[in-house]
Amino acid sequence: MSEQPKQADGEIHEDQLINVLTGAFTLDLGENAEIDPEDIFEVLVGTTADGTSISSLCKKSETAPSGTDVLYHLRTKFDLETVESTGNTLLHQDVLKTHPSRWRSLQTSTCDPTTVTKTRRVFGVHESTAPAAEAPEPLQDVLGADSSDLDHALAHIIRNLQLREDSREDNGWIDAKTVDVELRTAFEEQNANSDLPSFEELADVRQRSRLIEVGLNQTSRDVAVRLTDAGESVVALDTGESRAAGSIRHDEAITRIDAALTKIGCTVSVPKQDGSEQPDARAVHPGCDRPFAIEVETTTPDNPAQVLANLRKAQDASEHPIFVVEEATPETYWAERVDGILSSPVRELSTGETRLYTKDRALSFNGGATTDGGVTAVRPATENSKQTVWKRQDGRIVLENGQGNSLVETASVAELSRDHVPAVYSYDPATGEYIVSEQGLQYVYDSKEAFAEKWTRIMEPFVPEAELSYPGYGPDDYSIVVLRTDGQPVVYTDGETAALETLLEHEDVCSASKSSDEEESSFESSELLLAEIADDADAVVGRFASLYLIEEPTSTVAASTVYDYYEQWAKQHDIDPDSKSWFARRLGNHIELNRITERRDGELVRCYEGLRLDHQGTLEE
Which are the contacts of 188, defined by CB distance < 8 A and separation ≥ 6? Predict the structure, then answer.
């Protein structure tokens, strides 16, 4: 940097302050450093004098070094508290010696608490400053963040990008600009444009956050970020402590499907299981109109009514359910079991009889037997059988005992009252007694064992047309995923397995159609030169699509081939290419992508149907 103009006689010259700092602190920047220690101290003095930040000053000044470089060296070479204390002391001593008349005013200002604030501002640390924007609640839900603070949202974005780039295990460094763009895109997808944080605001949030570690990419010299220990704690999955949260096996399955879905471009959140009607996890994808409700079925395949209850939850929330099962022998055993439950929500016996699945909840009235004034339905226990059988017969719902005797007959379970069932019981916690009422008769049992020997609780039936908001659903209205012990999860459909990406091919979920005008304009080339749009990643991808992709109904092209050609084209023109996931997202903004999976040379290959790659595309000079 060139010398700063000196102040008039009698004033403290900036070069004097620079000399004080140069003499007090030794900076070893390394042989390959592009700046000198004096450059850093000159920036420090300038920012303090102007009351601005390093980033702002370096951006405005034509002679200043990169603000990123300055901040990196300051953060890695200095302890902030030491700089504040030592710097203030040395400045006092130097000014007292050379400008005694200015000592008192300087002493007053440096003792003021705002001095620490100014010094922290110079270093880019503003712990007491609140961000101008906050993460809206819909965005918090999508990311699984439990705070509206932007650094919590950024921490979750960093984690997701680490998963996509296979660097999560090592807490790898992620390009800060990529994180910022991802967060801003998430804001836009949640229709939160009015609160959209600027890149400057996000940089400020990063610099003062205890969740995010900021560094410098030694190759590209770009700012990079990763999580601190506090950040790791914030993004750790919390499946809750209630019984519904499941076992360790269940939690491990959630972690695995979370990572797998994130890698294909989804944003996954794991709501805390507090006993409410929550799925095990939720996922959203920019190419899909509806969220995915993820249900991990490690034990519920043995409880068909619970599988169907999970389907009901997804239907009620207008979400597409994904049922995740473990690998077995054969591999798809549990997938077939779950598919058998979902494909027909009742049991069709070979005799032609239709039986309803039973819930793990007893049929109760007024809150049940343990509630004051409530009762639970029971029937006399039969020898060697406590089974309750609900079936459809002549358009009605019939309850039988294990011996085939009819106990209840009704057109609807909702019409049942305590008078329709064989008997009811209540429980008195004060005496520990079980009191059974049967057609005017009353029996009292002083223990659970004595009660259970004579009576069996009647479990509720799962009646599809009463329970499901969409009882006429079909196989396209749910998905089943198998977690392989070794390898990536696969989607199970009708006895076959396919790549996880096929989840994104459901027409009713992920094929938001564009208007004919949008489709026509998406291929139009902008008249702007490429150099004029190089900083707009979306426009660059749009330009690539207009030049090299052609709609052709009978053609398919591998998604990896399209990306490889885009990456080569971008680098040829000195443009930083997007990652694969971001390229696919942006490409979907310009052309309608019909994603399919084809088997090529024995391998499943992700393809775009109806597109052809035109290798003869031209580019404006």
Answer: 196
Among residues 91, 97, 93, the alpha carbon closest in space to that of 118 is found at: 91
Q: In this prediction, what percent of the chain has a pLDDT beyond 90?
A: 37
Span 529-549, average pLDDT: 83
- Could you identify the residue written with the tokens 């295990």? 169
Match 């991990």 to its residue by tokens.
Answer: 296
Euclidean distance between CA atoms 381 and 400, whole angstroms: 12
| Dihedral angle sign, alpha carbons of residues 48, 51, 52, 57 | negative
Q: Strand pairing of 212-216 and 459-461? A: unpaired
Long-range pairs for 73-82: beta carbons < 8 A, 24 or more residues apart:
73/27, 73/29, 73/33, 73/35, 73/40, 74/40, 74/123, 75/123, 75/214, 76/215, 77/27, 77/28, 77/29, 78/25, 80/119, 80/120, 80/123, 80/125
pLDDT digits (tens, 9 = 90+) for 159-186: 999 999 989 999 999 999 999 999 988 8
Q: Is 194 exposed, middle or buried (0-12, 13-18, 19+ CB in 10 A)?
A: exposed
Q: What is the dihedral of CA 460, 461, 464, 465, to 10 degrees?
A: -80
Reduce the DSSP state of residue 345 to 3 states and report it.
coil
Supply 76's token pair.
Answer: 């890695």
Pairing of strands 433-438, 320-326: unpaired
310-330 residue pLDDT tens: 999 999 988 999 999 999 989
pLDDT tens digits, residue range 123-158? 444 444 444 578 888 888 889 898 889 999 999 999
- What is the structure's pLDDT at 61? 72
Specify the pTM: 0.61
Cis, peptide link before residue 330, omega less than 30° from 0 = yes
Closest CA to 388 of 376, 368, 404: 404
